[in-house]
Every structure is written in structure tokens, then in C-alpha cells.
Amino acid sequence: MIVAVMMVPLMGIVGGAVDFGHAVAERTRLNTALDAAALVAARAAQDADAAGKSDTDVRTTAEKAGADYFNAMKNLPKDAAGRVEVKIADRVATISASYSASMPTTMLGVLGYKTLPISSNATSSVNLSPLVDIHLLIDVSGSMAIGATDADVTKLRNKFNCAFACHDGKSFTETTGTGRNQRTVTYADTFDWAQKNGVNLRINEINKGITDFVNDLIKQSASSKRLRISVHSFSNDLSQIVALTSTLDTAKTSLPKTPSASSETEGGTHFSDIMPSFADIVGKPGDGTLKPRKLVIIATDGVQDPNRLWSHSGYEWMRPLVRPFDPADCRKLDSNVTVGVLYAPYINMPWDWGFNDTLGKPSQIGGPGTRFDDIVPQLKACASSPSMFINTATTASIGDAFKAIYNTYKTVRLSQ
């Protein structure tokens, strides 16, 4: 009799361990589904916002998407109650998801416990399309007239013994063919020759990238209504190409002009000098609700250059001034401005004496290599975060590089 009596609690203890094990496993399974449902709701909120829906519709759409995902889970406990709630504040949608359910027991039933309760919650958040001012700062110095690819550089070198197509107004004629097929063409300068003979230059690629980027922004119907864009270029001086406007198309029709090099003092890269003025133009950002956030995208090869005088005898003292950008110049912008850097890679030219006497010289910042080797680290330090630095050589197009920087505003993250 005593043994029989003791068997009941013993069976309850052993059975309890089994039942609790099953409950833990089921809770883990449901928690994984709940986390996914919270992210599904966040993505649905973002998509609904991008489609131009009201905040009320955004909430309804997101809540339904998250709940539908959770409730479609296979072998869901019959009494499982999944809940998804969306709140929108300051252009951020916060999703709170939770569930409660009960697990039928087996052995614990002997002790009168027919079910075990399980529950959990998860939260995700996503930035909806805020008010954003996008300021493009485009390098149009002489170096931006370099061939866009190695093949383009080779064409220029074979023709002019120079990797750059100079927009210097020095016209020349070229005669091709013989006899009846002979023809003579006059070109305004080597830049003109490059444009008419299939040589793609870096500035061409940058401008095409701006056009592709703006087209992509316009396709996002809702967010484009909350965007403004400006375009500035810089060489020796800062120039306004497009004043800040919500008419995004303007940035496609008014593109930065070709690099000028009509004299030895033009076509420089005075990044340090122009940044204080540019910082004043950009100003201080807001939180994206009533006052816009600020995004600056700098498209450049990252090399400060006073002008072309350094290539002449008597001006050797200027050669140390040909150097990578200083990240401190980017800090002239307000600290709350987000800075993206689109790097159009400077081409390593060890065959060029000018390169060897400037960027080919040892690092000026204590690096182990040359000034050329310092370009990328300095530009990465200029960007607000590692993800805001894009080397265009790693993307399918420069337009994709612009988009990659902008899309960092749309990161969905699971916060709990």
C-alpha cells in the first residue's frame, strides 16, 4: 500500500519533467514564429507607408500581416491567442507582438494539472519615410575627368599619353582614313574627343548615377513627397547646381558640369576650403517629423589637390598638398547630419611620375603605406558609419551606390 501511495507523486515528478520539457520546446517554437511575425508586421508597415497609405491604414495593414503570419503557423495550439499592435510616433512604427497559449499535459494530469500556460512577446521597429533633405556634394575637379575604367584610361594614354581628358579649351584637329575615306575633325579639347570617341569618364558615371538615383526616389511615391534634394559641386570653389527642392526631377536635368582645366590654377580639389560654407548651407537637422533629417552624400575620389602648378619646376613645395581628404573636414557639418561617402576609386598609376611624386609618397598620417593607401581609410572615417561608405567598384553601378547609402534609412531591426 505504501509503495502504491508513493508511486503517485513519483509519477507526477517524472511526468512533470517530461511535460515541462515539451512546454519549453513548444514555447521556443512559438517564440521564433512570434519574432518573425513582428518583423513581417514591421516590413508591412514600411511597405504600406511607401505606398502612400495613411497612418491608420499603415497600422491596420501591419497588424493584419503580423497576425496572419503567426496564425498561419502549423500545429498552432487551439487556444493560442496571438496579438499584434502597431504604434506610430515620430515617423517610427513600433510593433508589439504577443501570444498566450496552453499546453496539454500527460503525466501532470495525475496531479490535477491538465495544461501548462506558455506566453511571450516580441517587439520590432522600423523607420517610416521621414522628412529628409538629401544634399549631394559632387567632386568635379580635374581628376574626375580620368577614364572611368582601366580600358578608358588606356585609350586616353594611347592617344594623349595622359589618363585624363582635360577640359582646357585647347582645340586640335584629327585626320583619319585615306583617299576618299579621309576626314578631318576638330575637337574643342581632349575632353571633347573623349566624349565623341566612346571614352567614358568618371564624371559621366557620377552624373548617370545621380539620374538613376533620383529616378529610384521618384518611384517611391510616398517617400518622395517627404524628400527634398539639392546638388552642389566643388573644385576650386563650391557651386550650387540645384537649390534645395521637392521637385526631384530638377536634379536629373541640372547635373554637375564637366571639370574645368583651362588654366594651371583651375581644376583643383579644395575640399577643406569649401566645407565650412557647405556646412552652413546644410544646417542643423530635425527628427524628420516637422523639421527634416539631413543626409549628405559626398561623391569623390577623395584626394585634395591645390591645382596643377605642383607639376612645374619651382612648385615642388605644393606636392605634399596632394593628399587624401582629412576626416576633420567632414566634421565641419553638424554632428547630427548623416554623412555618406561614395568613393569613385582613384586609379593607382605607378607609371606616372606625378602620381609617384605625390600620392606615391609615404603616408602623412603614420600609415604603413603611401598616401594613396590612406585614401580609403580617411574617407571611411569621414562617413557617419561603415555602412555609409560605398566603394563604387563593389556595386553594379554608381546609381546602386547612391541607393545603398540612402537605403540605410530603411533598416528593419528586431529590438527584442
Walk me through what this model shows.
The chain is an alpha/beta fold and 416 residues long. It folds into two domains: 1-127, no CATH class; 132-146 and 201-412, Rossmann fold, CATH 3.40.50. The chain contains twelve helices and 14 strands. The protein has helices at 2-50, 55-71, 150-160, 190-196, 202-219, 221-224, 250-253, 271-282, 327-330, 353-356, 371-382, 398-406; strands at 81-89, 92-104, 115-127, 132-139, 172-176, 183-187, 227-234, 238-245, 293-300, 303-304, 323-324, 338-343, 389-391, 413-414. Strands 8-7-4-9-12-13 form a six-stranded mixed sheet, with helices on both faces. Strands 1-2-3-14 form a four-stranded antiparallel sheet. Strand 5 and strand 6 (183-187) form a beta hairpin. Helix 1 (2-50) runs antiparallel to helix 2 (55-71) and helix 5 (202-219) packs across helix 12 (398-406). The longest helix is centred in the first third of the chain and has 49 residues, at 2-50. The two termini are 53 Å apart. The model is unreliable at 1-7 and 412-416 (pLDDT under 50).
